[in-house]
């Protein structure tokens, strides 16, 4: 970075911005369609800003253009605790709990999102990583014998170099590090999420694929990897059209709220399948075979105002209608003034011109994004019932030894502050 001297002290947001940029550069070399997506997204944002006076109401154009979220998947709570330690060095805390086993099309994971929580930190760089953990204790997916072998496999692998984690803990404790040390730290952190070139044990991978593609992606290989990196756009319908025109076939719809006349709410997302990437497989006779896997994809998103619990209940009602777009007006007013007056959405100091942007995820969309990129549905013995098999937010917080922030409490606190 220009103007940064070796002895300069870099704080969490500066490290986070470099981490996000480093992952983005790596992902662009790994998944070329990502570069197309980023270029089209930047053009959409520029055009939107030129045509709309209040284009920056959900964040500055600089923030939105640099904004990304990533996603990773890990196998168990010990791995998730290491991820939490690593991301803490970048000022990213666990926020929210998502149980994707409860989705309409269940996925055998529970998830949280690591992100900054302070409004100033978010404004500087809001990088977030949706992090999923395999629900290996859930008997609907894993019978005892397979579970034991998955746990043994996970217990043997090491996702992160202990020296990297030690450095992360030190940086988190000290609130930053010298520029001199930052380069190596960030390069090592980025490299930890590269797609591994190590041969994949084919019979083990295939056995897990019979449970679910996600189980194989998580526990069938010896490392984790960034599986998508999502830019943010100001007009996702426009983005969808432009990508389709370029011959990139997107999933058949935009997930989340329909396009509406009133204020944008929550999060709208869409994705496309990445091309198959070459991978090497180790066969039963110890021979190596070349093959391909399609485990990664492209995604893009648009963000709107954060909804209160009351607003979220309205959202769920609107989305359960046969045609959410038609039903939208019955559940939501058309102006920020009415949204604020009805306490449906969060505004700084209650000022309707100061919407608070939604910084989190939507479980139905997340499951939809997972699903749209899988070849087949996971096989679960019996999906019916609401049994969580011991997974809930308190369990997860205890298992990683960290408070998992409640998104509503964070938005509520920001809404008490005076408009910026
Ligand atoms: C995560 C999918 C969820 C989103 O934007 O909702 C997600 C994954 O595929 O690991 O990233
Ligand atoms: Ni995503």
Order of helices and strands: EHHHEHEEHEHHEHEHHEHEEEEHHHHHH
Q: Overall mean pLDDT score?
A: 93
Which class of the domain at 6-254 and 379-415 in CATH terms? Alpha Beta
| The CATH H-level homologous superfamily of the domain at 6-254 and 379-415 | Uncharacterised protein PF07063, DUF1338
**Overall SS class:** alpha+beta
List the ions, cofactors and other small molecules found in this model.
Answer: 2-oxoadipic acid, nickel (II) ion
Keywords:
five-stranded mixed sheet, binds nickel (II) ion, 420 residues, alpha+beta, three-stranded mixed sheet, dioxygenase, HGLS, globular, dioxygenase activity, binds 2-oxoadipic acid, 2,3-Dihydroxybiphenyl 1,2-Dioxygenase, domain 1, YdcJ_bac-like, 16% strand, 12 strands
Question: Nutshell version of this structure?
Answer:
This protein has 420 residues and is of the alpha+beta class. It has helices spanning 12-30, 32-51, 61-66, 77-88, 119-124, 144-156, 162-174, 179-191, 202-209, 213-219, 236-245, 309-319, 324-331, 336-341, 363-372, 393-400, 407-415; strands at 9-11, 68-74, 93-99, 109-115, 128-134, 176-178, 200-201, 228-231, 267-273, 277-282, 288-293, 297-303. 43% of the residues lie in helices and 16% in strands.
